[in-house]
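Hi V.,

You were right to ask for the full record rather than a summary. Here it is.
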Amino acid sequence: FDAATIKPHSPEAKSSWLGIRNAPDGVNATATDLQSLIRYAYGLRIDQVSGGPDWAKSDQFDVQAKMSEADSAAMQKLTSAEATALRQRMMQALLAERFRLKVHSELKQAPIFELVVAKASPKLKDAATDTSDNLHKDKDGKPLTGMFSTGDITVAQGQSMKSLALVLSGPFAGVGRPVVDKTGLTGSYNFTLNWSAQPAHLVNGVATTPSDDAPSIFTALQEVGLKLQPATGPIDIIVIDHAEHPTAN
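Predicted structure:
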């Protein structure tokens, strides 16, 4: 980052949002602890950070980290994945400099879910040959790639099973464990889940939440011929070896 300020969060300070947010020219965080910053910097879940001082989970900080105009302009030309990786590397460097953070990675055995095929013919359409009229498309008419939630429905387009497993491993899925792809399916697929990954989302500009009787992700996956089966497996974790309160701005 070209410039960064880190200061203790004031409980009296009013903010319209809390947590970590990407900005076009950097990263902003409000009332955020060091462990959360580490998870952001390394792309981890809450169960993937271990060790460190007690204050790393309790003390809250406000962070404003900005790139130079040239770096920000260059980042706008990157793909979403490339921009995310760049922000993560920059945050790793910032934490090492200002918090004197030192970490190492380990593998540990932990409860996981394996994403497997539950039916002989899962209801997945090959994205390369799917010509459905209801596909989400870009301005040029080409199908978009991603997962789109509307009401209690999530439409997946051009998704690999590996990318689906990553989504299911995230906090919004609520399965409580990492998910590993064991389907053996190597293509990119279009499919619809009767489930929403968002706790709240916009429908025609109005904030809505999934209904109480909306199917769970476990049921929704079974409807398309997939299944989450409990297992034990290795997961990557980051262990905090050393951390100090941030240096002055």
